[in-house]
Fold this protein.
Amino acid sequence: MSRIQPLRREDLPQYEETFQAVETALGVLPNSTLTMARHPEVMAAFARLNAVVMADGRVGGVLKQLVATIVSAAAGCSYCQAHTSHVAEQRGADAEKLAAVWEFEASPLFTEAERAALRVARGAGLTPNAVTDQDMVALQRHFDDEQVVEIVAVIANFGFLNRWNDTMATELERSPLSWAGEHLQDHGWSAGKHSSRTPEAP
């Protein structure tokens, strides 16, 4: 159960434009947004940052979601793992590849460029940060400086979200909870403190 209860959307009509933008991007309005709404300036600022960071740019949106999934797994945030993997599927990630993301180092489904990005994400999600100079050299073999900045921006963005949602014990919404229960449990995922109910079929 959330440690601070999200506000009710229907009580916040003044923020509906922001809510709709977030919902369009994710397919659901996250409880994290409704908790941030208790400090509207934080909510609005983060919504703008997240929209820029996670948009298709010089790095594709699917890879960005996979990076977000791996950094969230390394940080131990079940809430963000559920959301990011679900959004990756919605953005067109191949189902077989998405299922194999946890074994990206060995899976033939991943390119060397993708492995380099996911390796940096995994190292960055750990405490202390475990990204090495060699990891960054490998990343820069495949991505130019502007693309590296995009990738690290995704990682940093989820540094905020991982800590926010794990500290707040944000309750998972029905859709990502059901999706994660169906697709992630075989990889050791559990909703843990992010759900007071059993995952249901979509």
Observations:
- The CA atoms of residues 46 and 161 lie 10 Å apart.
- The chain has a mean pLDDT of 94.
- The two ends are 21 Å apart (CA to CA).
- Residues 145-168 form the longest helix (24 residues).
